[in-house]
Amino acid sequence: MRIRVRKWQATVATLAFLMVVTNCRKTPQEPPVERVHATVPVSLVGMPPVLSTIVVEVTAPDISDPLVFNFEMVDGRASGVLTIPVGSNRTITGHGFDDNGVETHRGSIVVEIREGNNPLMRIVLDPLTGLKPFEIILGGFTIEVAPAEVTLEVGETHQFMATVTDGEGNVVEVDVEWATTNPGIARVDDDGLVTTLAEGNAQIVATLGAVGEAGRVIAQLAPLNFVIDPEVIPIADFTIGPGGEADRPVAAVLDQALGIQSEFVADELIVKTADDAVLEGLLARWGGEVIATNPSELTDGIPQHLVRVDVSDASTDGMIADLRSLGIGAEGTIRVSSKAGWQLLAASTQEIAGGVDAAVNWLLGPVDFANRVLLEAA
């Protein structure tokens, strides 16, 4: 029996066969697109102390699921990096949360993220409550502090400057935080103005987020020197001694900076000691003699001796070094009426530096001068 196949049936069968063959072939797959990512440093500036966690969210039309990064506060600061696919229209949103998980701040920017270094970008997070805003700084940067080192006299001021540069070398106008490592030596205000307070060294540090750079300030006392000035005239040439005679020579010293003049007996020291060996040693060094003694019951339990000394051989060369070793901060020019007076000051300073409780026998004073220049025992 002959089977007849109609033409249209043959055509359908042929098409079906071709479809099966075609479907059995492997369709070549497009290789996956490897996305380029950029690593963007993150620093947070001026955060209120109530914040504990910063959440940064990155979205874009070509980013299917949001990228989320957490930054925890450590010692009032937070920093880290964002890894973001390179491209445009990246919306970066920052959220600030307090210890209770309550969102307190929010802010966002839309930026282009490029491969390699990116310019500095700033997100201002505005408060959702009554707190202050703060900033998230995106992008790498460096800080340069000028001067790197400066030497100042105590009491002087100097302006430190900080230059912030982004990863492309562009200078960025942004405020830094200033601090000092030694507030007893130098203080610094919010604008970088440094004032020295005492002799010593301090680091002046500029900080932006987690990046800091320091300059160094060396504070030193202004030069101190003593000169004999015949125009410094004591109120009297002599004062009355224990015997009733005016036989005790008087000298005067003038602190030029303070404008204070004080008089003292030019050949007497007051020595406070109960140790006979200490007293005998001083008498031997200066050819001295005790001309009066206050009993211990009148002087806090320790006898106080008025000693006449011969300081004509006293050297003034080591006087300033002795004063500095005692922590005395006098500076400028100290004018003395006579060489004998200068030598007595040198002798008393030498004794004090050597551990002897000694003092000049001041007359009518010496007001502030004694506290600044000599350690008074009387």
How does this model look, in words?
Helix 3 runs parallel beside helix 4. The strands form 5 sheets. The protein has an 8-stranded antiparallel β-sheet, with no helix packed on it. It is built from 5 helices and 26 strands. The C terminus is likely disordered. The longest helix is centred in the N-terminal third of the chain and has 18 residues. Helices cover 15% and strands 46% of the residues. The chain is mainly β and 378 residues long.
Essential attributes:
mainly beta; disordered C terminus; 8-stranded mixed β-sheet; 8-stranded antiparallel β-sheet; 378 residues; 5 helices
Total number of beta strands: 26
In DSSP terms (H or I, runs of 4 or more residues), the helix count works out at 5
Strand content: over 45%
Query: Main sheet: which strands, in order across?
Result: 3-2-5-6-7-8-1-4
Uncertain spans, ≥5 residues at pLDDT below 50? 7-26, 366-378
Q: Roughly what percent helix?
A: 10-25%
How does the major sheet shape up? Answer: 8 strands, antiparallel
Q: Assign the structural class, choosing from mainly alpha, mainly beta, alpha/beta, alpha+beta, or little secondary structure.
A: mainly beta
Tell me, what's the shape?
elongated
Q: What is the CA-based Rg, rounded? A: 41 Å
Mean pLDDT: 81
What is the CA-CA span between the terminal residues? 149 Å
